[in-house]
Design brief:
The complex is a heterodimer of chains A (125) and B (338). Helices cover 72% and strands 0% of the residues of chain A. Chain A contains five helices and no strands. The longest helix of chain A is centred in the middle third of the chain and has 39 residues. Chain A is elongated. Chain B has 338 residues and is an alpha+beta fold. Chain B has two domains: 84 residues; 212 residues, Aminoglycoside 3'-phosphotransferase, Chain: A, domain 2 (Alpha-Beta Complex), CATH 3.90.1200.10. In chain B, the strands form three sheets. Chain B has a five-stranded antiparallel sheet. A two-stranded antiparallel sheet of chain B has the order 6-9. A two-stranded antiparallel sheet of chain B has the order 7-8. The longest helix of chain B has 27 residues. The chains are: A mainly alpha (125), B alpha+beta (338). Chains A and B meet through helix 2, helix 3, helix 4 and helix 5 of A and helix 6, helix 10 and helix 11 of B.
Chain lengths: 125, 338
């Protein structure tokens, strides 16, 4: 068990340093990259918070959809293979449900304010 | 007029402009506008005795003969196509001069500097453009019909990219990265069954979207950035401007965040564009969304392989998922069963 602060707390401190202290002193390209860096840290903080749960749910759905065991990378490669060879049809109901839920979870980590997520008809209310 | 802080090519540019443009006796206010891997742009004024001509120099980075990406045309070709577009009444910056070897400035050309806004968030939200916004989708349709109507015999040598060739190109780029994206597989499969016949291929702008359109209070003032121009399916240009990433948050206005497909199509038909349908546009909207997702993977590769270690190149890989949600919304429009 690591001591306090948690990884999330450290990253949040780094993000706040960039936003509140570094960025006001920067201009042009460097200021732009600092903004990108702060956003990148926010992605990691969300991934630390939501990633494990999302990955477990994705793996369970994949195992059910493909009727086999494996890690996430193996299962996703197998899913891609079956789609390419038409062993799995793209209008399969289990597939569309899996991809919808997986993608909602991914974008919620990568870009929670993205318009395609905010206005998705699949978004739970 | 030249100060010590001027770039080293300033005297050569000054000499070239004075040779090329009658009455010009000096240049002033030379400064960098933007730069990329394939080109750099500089703003400057050409001075005659009583006039100031606002101009832009677009040239190869550092004036060098660099290899542009396989999909980009040469700067000389870009200039030639812009001049053809101007003759066809497409709003473009005039191109008074194409650089010659003897100018010692590298490949490039001089164009007029048009006043206006290219930043999408301002165009879509600032009150200044409120009167222009409702006109833009129709204008885009009209402009595209003019571009697509340019006679192919005038075009000279230009890459022909059939829908199938472009499909295979992106399939092969995606396959090369060897990283599984099941949503992209679904999109490829959906598109594969709908690839249009290469019936009437025309001149295509190739990057017709917010960012490359100069907008004023009166509407579209100029179509910029012709480096991806080619001969292809004209519907490609109509679909690309519908990709959700180019709506910059204004998702419900499908065309560039400012209008509807019906307005785009009405403008297109009204300006003589034939046979365009919402279905043809949708194919290229789906294709364009997938293409932008793969382009995000490509930009991440520049980071992963070490050619650009910026945090921006690293982070853009995580924008692939925005195209995945857009593809899910497009291809699975109904909510899944609970």
């Amino acid at each position: 068990m690591m001591d306090q602060p948690s990884a999330t707390e450290i990253l949040t401190a780094v993000r706040e340093f960039i936003e509140k202290h570094a960025m006001p002193e920067l201009t042009g390209r460097t200021a732009f990259h600092a903004r990108v860096a702060a956003n990148a840290i926010a992605i990691i903080v969300r991934e630390l918070d939501q990633g494990d749960r999302a990955n477990v749910a994705e793996q369970l759905r994949l195992e059910q959809l493909l009727q086999r065991k494996g890690n996430l990378a193996e299962l996703n490669r197998e899913l891609c293979r079956r789609l390419r060879t038409n062993e799995l049809a793209i209008d399969d109901a289990g597939l569309s449900r899996h991809l919808t839920l997986t993608t909602l979870a991914k974008v919620a980590i990568d870009q929670p304010n993205y318009s395609g997520l905010l206005h998705s008809p699949h978004r739970p209310d | 007029m030249m100060s010590a802080s001027q770039p080293s090519f300033a005297p050569a540019l000054n000499a070239a402009i004075q040779r090329a443009m009658v009455g010009v006796n000096a240049i002033a206010n030379l400064h960098r506008l933007s730069g990329g891997a394939s080109q750099e742009t500089w703003s400057f004024d050409a001075l005659t005795g009583d006039q100031i001509l606002p101009l832009v120099l677009r040239r190869a980075p550092g004036g060098a003969l660099v290899q542009r990406s396989v999909t980009a045309v040469s700067l000389a070709t870009e200039a030639r196509v812009i001049r053809l577009a101007e003759a066809a009444r497409v709003p473009v910056p005039p191109v008074p001069y194409v650089l010659q070897d003897s100018d010692e400035l590298g490949p490039g050309y001089i164009m007029g500097r048009i006043e206006g806004e290219t930043i999408a968030r301002k165009i879509l939200r600032d009150p200044e453009y409120a009167a222009a916004r409702p006109k833009l989708a129709r204008q885009c349709g009209e402009i595209l019909a003019l571009i697509h109507g340019i006679g192919k015999s005038q075009l000279g040598e230009l890459r022909v990219v059939t829908p199938k060739a472009q499909f295979e190109q992106y399939r092969s780029i995606y396959d090369g990265y060897d990283y599984p994206h099941p949503v992209f597989e679904v999109a490829f499969k959906w598109l594969e069954g709908r690839i249009p016949e290469p019936r009437e291929l025309t001149l295509v702008h190739g990057d017709f979207r917010n960012g490359n359109l100069m907008i004023g209070q009166d509407g579209v003032r100029a179509v910029l950035d012709w480096e991806l121009t080619h001969i292809g399916d004209p519907a490609e240009d109509l679909g690309w401007i519908c990709v959700n990433s180019w709506r910059f948050g204004e998702t419900h206005k499908v065309v560039g965040g400012f209008g509807d497909v019906s307005e785009l199509l009405a403008g297109y038909a009204g300006a003589g564009g034939a046979g365009m349908t919402a279905e043809r546009v949708k194919f290229w909207e789906v294709f364009g969304t997938l293409k932008w997702g793969i382009m995000c993977m490509t930009m991440y590769q520049a980071f992963a392989l070490g050619s650009d270690r910026s945090v921006e190149r690293a982070a853009i890989g995580r924008r692939s998922s925005e195209t995945e949600i857009d593809l899910v919304n497009l291809l699975y429009p109904k909510a899944p069963a609970p």
